[in-house]
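S.,

Sequence below, as promised.
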Amino acid sequence: MKYARLTKEQFEELHPEFIRFLATQSIDKAEWDSIKSTKPEVADQELDVFSDLIWEGVLSRATHLEYFSKNHVFLFHCKEQQIETIVLKSLDASIDFLTNEGLHWLSDHLFTKQLSMQQGVKKYAERNSDLFALIQQGAILSDGKLYDQIHSIIMS
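The prediction came back faster than expected:
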């Protein structure tokens, strides 16, 4: 398995896709039920293959990730060959970006000396695996609006 098995909730959400996946392997409901009860290791392999296919698709389409912690915001632009990063850090330890108040503080202090801003670029070792590692650490997929807004302000 290259990534991680989807959660029960994710499998439930992707139930129609999973049925199609099994159908491409000529496995109907009766055969799937039989496999689950008589060959659980084969069922696990099918779940793992499906999970990897889903993750591969999601990661291949990912354009932006975000990660918020108490005093940091990491914004990632996932390009084809490299990932570009904007890191915002509150120099006031009492600020918590995990709260609404912290996010309001961020917007009010974006270009003040109370906020450190750094940019970076890193080439991927392997794009989708690198993005998955960030997700495993807590990053979430995003539409990139916050990255784009801050990036456009920095570049102007």
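The helical segments are 8-13, 15-24, 29-38, 40-61, 100-108, 127-136, 145-155.

Coffee later?
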